[in-house]
Specification:
about 800 residues; alpha+beta; 6-stranded mixed sheet; 9 helices; 42 strands
Length: about 800
């Protein structure tokens, strides 16, 4: 861009940019009044009231059983205690129940092999506080009451009895089977050689103990209790842990791989908290997001995806003196109790070594956790993680809406969260299996699968609309009930039924319904058409209805009722009007047409295919009007030219390096070369080739809505707009979320004009050519050094060699 080529238009652009900078920054940072999508593509934040607790995740009953034998050092026992506290505090359902049990052996009078430090308690707000206090009793061993051995049979027996016994308080819904799970932590192997209960000599005692363990596992299996063993250290009996996992109940929370009980072993007690939280997430069909680690004072971050509807942010403080403050992705401090912007919050463990913030309907994106501590309490590293589950709501359209017996029916399903986030990014639903069950009078229930693969009847692969077909059984005589099922790691379905009626004969009135796909502003309108054929001799009154609306949309359809004249076909236009406070993003819901003269029979339904965008600001409208006039040529001449040139230099991104990180480690980088960031804007994409790690690729020409965009303001601030999302500020060296990955921006020196691109990590396959298909592609650093990156280990700042995020398979 040259001053001599643009003249007065450039002068006006500079003046407008100077005015727009603060406003744009305020919007990007989530300042009060800012609205928009946060957290990635396909996500929209809807500030509305939180959901009923009964609509939350299904509860589980669980017991954490902790080895307190003499083989554990005090530091190992302390780490076991913190790990037990993490999963008790991090449980996402307030209707679940939890117990904590320590165990050793019984070798002399007065000793018991088990010690129940926390009785079975409902994990609501008060229950979590009680559990936060009592779990700390695990650290205090009493040799007079518990022996030094390892009595696995007694530990399993106590946990199974507590989970299956009567008379315990219950927050579970009546008539619903609640999973029962035992998490067993140990550093060793069965040791009852000195326990008189098992026989008269050490050899027979060990043999009898092994036999007793088999019996207790059979009892657990019969009672429906799962056993998930977690071992650490070098003395672990892997075969025994495998037998415990296989000997208990083999049921699982879903049909997805990894949700059935299995054992796990880690090297040291330092790995227990992370491993146990991952094990817990697998057992209750949740997901875990690992955040950053640091010593106070520090800002730690963790990313919650758009599909999460219930979650807990757990903070492993280790020291009760550490104080924690939570900030949502819009940069706003959230309350530790109560409701705020459509989310409900509840903190526990503030005065303990483990703290957790349970959130219903969390705002998707990167959360910030600020930690502070007084002098003398800043030597321990603090880790933040999020355990979450997405309870999706399915919106279903049948075609035909009222089928006849023996007729083939097309079923189409779209998903959204309670917060109103319409899921449009297929990567958020990787591994999702969708099925449906049809039941009714006159036939046995029928199950069938739905797919989003682009194969008939599915219209388009990857549009997150799952489609399938079935034939209504010939014996169907009346009401039909359709229930969809969704299964994936961390995702469950609300299983709301869709009711329909079998038509006895061909209907006299048929309808076709189409709603225009459009991008509109809040308060705008969307057009549609209704085509009706009435073969009856009398007119029929039809009603247009809206269902499964995004919270806060306040939609209205006009006209609400129409008349279908007799013996003719009619096309009737209609409009859907959006409320002025409709949130930005993909609009959920559907339109259906109902025949009021035929028992409110649904004739046809159609999804709304609408994206709500922010209206242009006053300065954008002013810019368009002024650009057409072209009359402002000589405003302030030389002074503005100098200031504009300085602004352009400050906005130049030449030499800035983008690092793509996964599991906290850099996997690819891209450096901005001279001339690639016109106007301070650099567009790029993340490619995910099959069978290879993700890579960064520059998109020439400033990008589009399909690209991620990094820009620098005239004041030097860096702003990142993830694809389809809102701009957020980023700071050099700190990770920012883009979809399923993290991006770290580094540097800013002038890069050589013709810098070559090389493969940054030695483990990558060699590539040839440029990434964008022509000259001027982004350059790539070859050494991986600098900015805190260790080329020997591949570790960046705040990471440790070998650190990985849990992906559901361990």
């Amino acid at each position: 861009m040259q001053w001599t080529n643009k003249g007065g238009v450039l002068l006006l652009a500079g003046a407008l940019l100077a005015l727009s900078g603060p406003l744009a920054a305020a919007t990007a940072s989530g300042a009060p009044g800012a609205r928009g999508a946060l957290g990635g593509p396909g996500a929209q934040a809807v500030p509305r009231t939180a959901a009923d607790p009964a609509d939350g995740p299904d509860p589980i009953d669980f017991a954490v059983v902790v080895d307190q034998s003499a083989s554990l050092a005090d530091k190992d026992l302390a780490r076991e205690t913190d790990a037990a506290a993490l999963i008790v505090q991090g449980e996402i359902s307030e209707r679940s129940r939890a117990a904590v049990i320590g165990f050793g052996s019984s070798e002399k009078p007065g000793q018991s092999p088990v010690r129940e430090v926390c009785p079975l308690s409902v994990v609501d707000a008060a229950g979590r506080e009680r559990l936060s206090d009592c779990v700390q009793e695990l650290k205090r061993r009493d040799p007079a009451r518990t022996g030094p051995g390892t009595d696995f049979p007694a530990a399993v027996r106590q946990a199974v009895t507590r989970l299956t016994g009567a008379g315990a308080p219950s927050g579970n819904p009546a008539g619903k089977t609640v999973p029962k799970v035992v998490f067993l932590l140990t550093d060793g192997r069965l040791d009852v050689a000195d326990s008189p209960e098992y026989g008269s000599d050490p050899e027979s005692r060990q043999s009898n103990g092994a036999r007793r363990l088999t019996e207790e596992l059979a009892r657990a299996r019969a009672a429906g209790v799962q056993i998930w063993p977690l071992g650490f250290g070098a003395e672990i009996d892997r075969a025994a842990l495998t037998a415990m996992a296989g000997g208990g109940f083999r049921g699982a929370c879903s049909e997805m791989p990894g949700s059935a009980p299995r054992m796990r072993v880690v090297g040291t007690s330092a790995e227990i908290d992370k491993a146990l939280q991952e094990t817990f997430a697998a057992a209750r069909c949740a997901r875990i997001a690992h955040g950053t680690v640091g010593k106070p004072p520090a800002d730690l971050t963790v990313t919650i995806p758009p599909i999460a509807t219930d979650g807990s942010l757990t903070v492993a403080k280790h020291d009760p003196k550490v104080q924690v403050t939570y900030y949502d992705p819009a940069g706003r401090k959230v309350p530790v109790r109560g409701e705020f912007d459509g989310s409900a919050f509840e903190v526990s463990g503030e005065n303990g070594p483990v703290e957790a913030l349970r959130v219903k309907n969390p705002l998707p994106g990167r959360w910030r956790v600020h930690i502070e501590a007084p002098e003398g309490h800043r030597d321990r590293e603090v880790a933040v993680r999020a355990i979450w589950q997405g309870r999706l709501r399915s919106t279903v359209v049948l075609d035909p809406a009222s089928p006849r017996a023996g007729e083939r029916v097309k079923v189409e399903v779209r998903m959204q969260t309670r917060r109103g986030v319409v899921v449009t990014d297929p990567r958020q639903l990787a591994g999702l299996a969708v099925a449906a069950d049809l039941s009714g009078a006159g036939f046995d229930p029928v199950s069938f699968r739905l797919a989003d693969d682009g194969k008939a009847p599915d219209a388009k692969a990857g549009d997150v609309r799952f489609t399938g077909t079935l034939t209504v059984p010939a014996g169907a005589t009346g009401d039909l009930e359709l229930v969809t099922r969704m299964e994936a790691p961390g995702i469950t379905s609300d299983r709301r039924p869709l009711h329909a009626v079998v038509a006895a004969t061909a209907p006299l009135v048929t309808a076709g319904l189409a709603v225009d796909g459009a991008t509109v502003h809040p308060g705008g309108t969307v057009h549609g058409t209704l085509d009706v054929t009435n073969n009856d001799s009398a007119p029929h009154t039809l009603r247009l209805a809206l269902g499964d609306q995004t919270p806060g949309a306040e939609l209205a359809v006009t006209p609400a009722t129409v008349t279908a004249p007799p013996n003719r076909s009619t096309r009737i236009p209609f409009t859907v009007t959006l409320g002025k406070d409709t949130p930005f993003g993909e609009l959920g819901g559907q339109v259906s047409v109902v025949d009021t003269g035929d028992g409110d029979r649904v004739l046809r339904g159609a999804f709304l295919d609408v994206r709500v965008a922010a209206p242009p600001t006053w300065w954008e409208r002013w810019w368009k009007a002024a650009a057409g006039g072209a009359a402002v040529v000589l405003l302030v001449g030389t002074v503005v030219g100098i200031r504009l040139a300085a602004r352009r230099r400050r906005r130049d991104l030449t030499g800035v390096t983008l690092e793509l990180c996964q599991d906290g480690r850099p996997i690819d980088s891209l450096t901005v070369r001279r001339g690639q960031s016109p106007g301070g804007v650099f567009a790029f994409a993340v490619d995910e080739p099959y069978g290879a790690p993700p890579t960064l690729r520059r998109i020439p020409g400033g990008g589009s809505s399909a690209a991620h965009v990094l820009r620098r303001t005239g004041g030097g601030e860096l702003l990142l707009r993830p694809r389809g999302g809102a701009q957020v500020p980023v700071r050099a060296g700190e990770p920012a979320g883009i979809g399923d990955h993290e991006l770290v921006v580094r540097g800013g020196r002038q890069a050589p004009a013709g810098g070559a691109r090389t493969t940054p990590w030695s483990r990558r396959p060699r590539r040839t050519g440029t990434r964008d298909g022509g000259a001027g592609s982004g350059s790539r650093s070859g050494s991986g050094s600098g900015s805190g990156f260790d080329p020997a280990t591949g570790a960046g700042p705040g990471t440790s060699p070998g650190a990985t995020d849990y992906d559901g398979n361990f």
